[in-house]
């Protein structure tokens, strides 16, 4: 396909026809088309392939059956973790069900793939978002992609195609994708209403300069093996912020958010449930929209929960997001 043609705002095809053009991805596309029928008959799922800074990039869009072009819909992004892709979180996150209830257009982008030091340079490539932690993880030969530009482009393409409330654009993520939402809260905060994520954060003891200070919700499972192993707790993080902040890593990560978003370091414990404990940090401006929530999930490992019997991560994040606009 001519690259100039690929740059047009909407390239592209319903998944039910994509198999005609992409034999290598036909099985995945047919699976998505099948799930479309299992959701709501009038809902639409599309895969969009676009060109960003010379790279072919992809994202999945879920348009709910409630979509009405005469009314503006909120736009929500779900960012996958390391080695994941948009297809995975289309399947497991629970956002499509919330899209039907709240008339959300939901986007599931896929990151670029890199050669990582952890795997030994020259071995398998792994999908990774270019969050603030990635530069120290990739092999020397790798050229990092500008994912902030990619998200900016996705927003532009979807705003051209659909009736979207541009004051209500939200970024949710998991693990490496959660860390990317924090980067976007700095570099794309002029377009985003709020961000939130689970199991991925800023680097510790750093300060960034956001274009605009926006509401933030970070979350962590107490038995997240990838994060707990980096702390003094080894395998289980306590369900106590007083104890949690005894750990230098978790304290340093939190301080990055406090300093970056001009928050009061004195927090209050709020919105707790049988399964979660939340600390709320108010902003120094005193504005009710200037805040950060930090939620601990009891006995949650390194995954994005979507249980049948109680609210999952998507539910908790949407309950936070829906009150804010840009």
From TrEMBL:
Domain of life: Bacteria
Subcellular location as annotated: Secreted
Hydrolase among keywords: yes
GO cellular component entries: extracellular region
Lineage of the organism: Bacteria, Pseudomonadati, Bacteroidota, Flavobacteriia, Flavobacteriales
Keywords, ordered alphabetically: Carbohydrate metabolism, Hydrolase, Polysaccharide degradation, Secreted, Signal, Xylan degradation
Pfam families found in the cross-reference section: Abhydrolase_2
Coiled coil spans: none
Main location: secreted
Keyword Hydrolase: yes
GO molecular function annotations of the record: feruloyl esterase activity
Phospholipase/carboxylesterase/thioesterase domain mapped to chain residues: 145-227
GO biological processes: xylan catabolic process
Protein name from the UniProt record: Phospholipase/carboxylesterase/thioesterase domain-containing protein
Organism name: Flagellimonas eckloniae
